[in-house]
Amino acid sequence: QVQLVESGGGLVQAGGSLRLSCAASGRSLSNYAMGWFRQAPGKEREFVATIRWSGGRIYYADSVKGRFTISGDNAKNTVYLQMNSLEPEDTAIYYCAAGSSWRYSMVELSRKDLYNYWGQGTQVTVSA
Fold first, then answer.
1. Mean pLDDT within 8-35
2. How far apart are CA 126 and CA 92, in angstroms?
3. Is the confidence at residue 27, as pLDDT, over 90?
4. Interatomic CA distance for residues 17 and 11, integer angstroms
5. What is the DSSP string of 26-86?
6. Which of 114, 116, 127, 110 lies closest to 38, judged by CA?
7. Helices (H) and strands (E) in the chain, counts
């Protein structure tokens, strides 16, 4: 079992920044990918970014590329999402997820069905 706890959400003006954290516990994540997804009201949960613990490969959704940065701290078992140049369209609940990654390409790891464990989510609201 893996437990994931997100933090760092909040209210920010357009153009501002936030950093989300996801602390993982419960088992080794060496063969896992850690992903960030988001869900806006009335919309499907969508992929934001993912990082493979082993090797550190990263993949982003086009909508956040150049504005968001995903990173991981192996010693702390924590993954981060630095969000810059935030837009009102980024308003959503942001979820951290973990899934076994060794069989999949980085593009495939944008699929939410490949993630077994999910955090409770943290709200990000960007005002115009």
1. 94
2. 9
3. no
4. 10
5. SS--TTEEEEEEEE-TTS--EEEEEEETTT--EEE-TTTTTTEEEEEEGGGTEEEEEE-S-
6. 110
7. 0, 11
Name the average pLDDT for the chain. 95
Who contacts 113 (Cβ-Cβ below 8 Å, separation ≥6)? none
Q: How far apart are CA 24 and CA 80, in angstroms?
A: 11
Q: Return d(Cα 101, Cα 96) in angstroms, integer.
A: 15
CA distance 116 to 47: 15
Alpha carbon distance 91, 126 (integer Å): 5
32-72: pLDDT as tens digits: 999 999 999 999 999 999 999 888 899 999 999 999 999 99
- Confidence band for 22, pLDDT divided at 50, 70 and 90: very high
Q: Which residue has the tokens 């209210």?
A: 11
Region 96-122: what's the mean pLDDT? 94
* DSSP-based three-state secondary structure for 127: strand
